[in-house]
Amino acid sequence: xxxxxxxxxxxxxxxxxxxxxxxxxxxxxxxxxxxxxxxxxxxxxxxxxxxxxxxxxxxxxxxxxxxxxxxxxxxxxxxxxxxxxxxxxxxxxxxxxxxxxxxxxxxxxxxxxxxxxxxxxxxxxxxxxxxxxxxxxxxxxxxxxxxxxxxxxxxxxxxxxxxxxxxxxxxxxxxxxxxxxxxxxxxxxxxxxxxxxxxxxxxxxxxxxxxxxxxxxxxxxxxxxxxxxxxxxxxxxxxxxxxxxxxxxxxxxxxxxxxxxxxxxxxxxxxxxxxxxxxxxxxxxxxxxxxxxxxxxxxxxxxxxxxxxxxxxxxxxxxxxxxxxxxxxxxxxxxxxxxxxxxxxxxxxxxxxxxxxxxxxxxxxxxxxxxxxxxxxxxxxxxxxxxxxxxxxxxxxxxxxxxxxxxxxx
Amino acid sequence: xxxxxxxxxxxxxxxxxxxxxxxxxxxxxxxxxxxxxxxxxxxxxxxxxxxxxxxxxxxxxxxxxxxxxxxxxxxxxxxxxxxxxxxxxxxxxxxxxxxxxxxxxxxxxxxxxxxxxxxxxxxxxxxxxxxxxxxxxxxxxxxxxxxxxxxxxxxxxxxxxxxxxxxxxxxxxxxxxxxxxxxxxxxxxxxxxxxxxxxxxxxxxxxxxxxxxxxxxxxxxxxxxxxxxxxxxxxxxxxxxxxxxxxxxxxxxxxxxxxxxxxxxxxxxxxxxxxxxxxxxxxxxxxxxxxxxxxxxxxxxxxxxxxxxxxxxxxxxxxxxxxxxxxxxxxxxxxxxxxxxxxxxxxxxxxxxxxxxxxxxxxxxxxx
Lengths: 410, 368
Known about the structure:
Chain A has 410 residues and is of the alpha+beta class. Helices cover 49% and strands 13% of the residues of chain A. Chain A has 14 helices and eight strands. In chain A, the strands form two sheets. In chain A, strands 1-4-5-8 form a four-stranded mixed sheet. In chain A, strands 2-3-7-6 form a four-stranded antiparallel sheet. The two termini of chain A are 38 Å apart. In chain B, 49% of the residues lie in helices and 16% in strands. In chain B, the strands form two sheets. In chain B, strands 1, 2, 3, 4, 5, 6 and 7 form a seven-stranded mixed sheet that branches. In chain B, strands 8-9 form a two-stranded antiparallel ribbon. In chain B, helix 3 runs parallel beside helix 7, helix 8 packs antiparallel against helix 9 and helix 9 runs antiparallel to helix 11. The chains are: A alpha+beta (410), B alpha+beta (368). The interface between A and B is large, with 43 and 50 residues.
C-alpha cells in the first residue's frame, strides 16, 4: 500500500543527525574547505564516539549490540541519514570514519568469517575507515578494463598496479591514521576479461602498498582522494572476496557490480542533501526579502524566481523519491539495478543544476566565499561523476529498458 | 513506513484498465482524433468498467468502494496511456460526482448521485476555464451573486469537456461577499437552466476527439441547494484533485510515447544496426524512462496526501508543473526518435505530442 511517510524510527535517526549536521558540521565546513588535506580530528573522534554510543552514522545505523535485530529498512535508513549529513557538509560526511564503501563490499560479498574479521574493527575505540579502490589511470567508467593484477604465489596473492581516485584511501590505508583496509579490484586472469576481476582486502600498512599522493580537488576537499601504488603487495589467500574461480561467463563480474546497486542510492542521497542545503538557503533568503513562493497560483502570475524555485524543488523531490524507491526495493530484496541507476543519474544531474541555480539567484552573495553556496556548488558536482558518471548510469538504464547486453549497447 | 507498491485492490483495478486501454481504447485513438468522434459503443464499454459507479456509496446506488486519489491517479494514467481524449471523456462524469461526494449536501447527493449508477453512460462535466490569457481557476471572472434566497450566475467558460451532451455542469464562479471581494465557489447547473447558452464545438490543436464547448451564463438562476459546501478549502482541494488527475494522465501520455519510440527504435535499422543501439537514441529513451517514473512518484505523493486529507497544494502544484513539462519533453523526444516518420499521421507520436501540449494549460479537466 502506497505510503510516503518515513517510519518514526527513521525520522528519529534523521532528527539526531540533523542536530549533528547543523551544530558540528556547518560551523567547520568552510574552514576545512580552505585548509585542504588537513583532517578534522575533533569532529572525527566526536562522531566516532557518537556513532558507537548511539548507533547512528552512515553504515552504522541502528546497531543495537544488546539486542541485535535485522533492520528491515537498512538501505532506506542509510539514504535518509546520508542526506541529512550531506545537508551539513558533503565533504565532512565523506570523511567520516566507518565501513563506507569497503565495508559495503565486505557485507555484499564476504564470507561470515570475513565479515566478522573485518567489520568488527568498526566497533573499536579508535576511528577506522575502509575504502574501495577501483579506478585506474587508464580505466574509469570502464571498470572491466582494469590492469591491476593479482597473482597467486603459494599462500598469498601478489598485487601489482596503480589505483587512483580512491576516496578515503589515506585514512583507510595509512596505519598511522587508522587500522583500516582497502578493497582493491584486480584481475586474476586478463584473458578472461570481466570474469577475471576479483576484489581483495588489503590491510592498512601492508608492505608493497604505497599511498603516493592525495588529489587537490574542486570540492569535497576535506575528503581525501588517494593514489595507491601496489608493488608486489602480498596478502593472505583468504583475503579475496568471493570465489577465486574464474567462471566461464561474466556472472562473477556482475556480482562485483551488484555492489553499486546498494551504493548508488547512497550517493544519490548525498547529492540530494547538498541540493537541499542550497534550496533551504534560497528559501530562507527569499523569506527574509518577503518574496513568497505561491504554490497553487496560476502560471502566468508566477515570477521568474518562483518558477526557478519550484523547478528546483520539484526536481530535487523527484530525485529523492527515485532514490528512496531504489533503497526500498533493496530492503525488500528486489533487484534494483535499473532503479539505482535512475536515482544516481537523476540526483547527480539535479544537484548540479540546483546548486548552480542557487548561486545564480543569490547573485554576488552566491559567488562569495563568505557564504557556503559556492562551496555547495563545487561539492555537488562530484555526485554527477563518482560511483558511475551520469552517462554510465544512463547507459545502464538504456540497456535495461531495451533489454540489451553491454555488447549490444556500448 | 515508506512503500511504493499499490495494494491488491488497486492492482486489480489497474490490470482491468490496462487491458481495456490496450485492447479497446488504443485501436480507436487515431480514427477518433481524425473524425473528432469517439464511438458511443466504446464509451458504453468504458462505462461498464464501473470507474464512475465504483466510488459512489451503495446507498446512492453505487458499488461503494470509496474515493481514493491514488486509485484515481492509477486509472487516469492507464486510460490516458490508451488515448487522452477518450480517457477524459470516460472520466468526465467524475467531474460532478467527486465534488458532490466530497462537498455536496445529503440532499444534493441524493438528487445527483443515483443517476450516475445506471446502465448507460451519464454525460456530465465541469466548467472551470475561461477564455482569457490571465485565467486563474481560483479567481474566476464568472460571477455568482446573491439574489434573495438564491443566486444569479453570469460569465463565460471555455474548454468544457462534453459541453455538447453533459446533462450537468460543475461551474467554478466567484461568489461576491458584498465588500467587492469574491472567493471561488462550486455550483451545479443543469443543462436546461434558462440563461445558459452552449456554444459551438471548439477546435483545438489536440484533444480533437474530445468534444469541448464554451458555455455562456446570462443571469442564470441558481437555487441555493445547488451550491457545494466546504468553503474555500473545498475549491483548493478540488483544484488539487484536478492537478493530480492531470499529472497522472500526463504520465500515461508520456509513457505511451516512450513505449512507442522504444519499440520503433528497436526495429528501425540505420548504418547496419537498429537505432536503439546508438547512444544518441538510447540515452533519449533512458531519460524518458527515468522521467516517467519520476513524474509518477511525484503524482502519487500528492495523491497520497489528498487521501490522508492533508493540504497537498504544494505537492499537487509541483507534480502538475513537473508532469506537464516532462510530458511535452518526452513526447517531443519520442517524435524525434522516429524522425520524419514521427511527423506523419500514420504514427501516433504526433498525436501524443499535440495532446501532451494541453497539460500546461488545462485546469479542471479530470479529477482523481
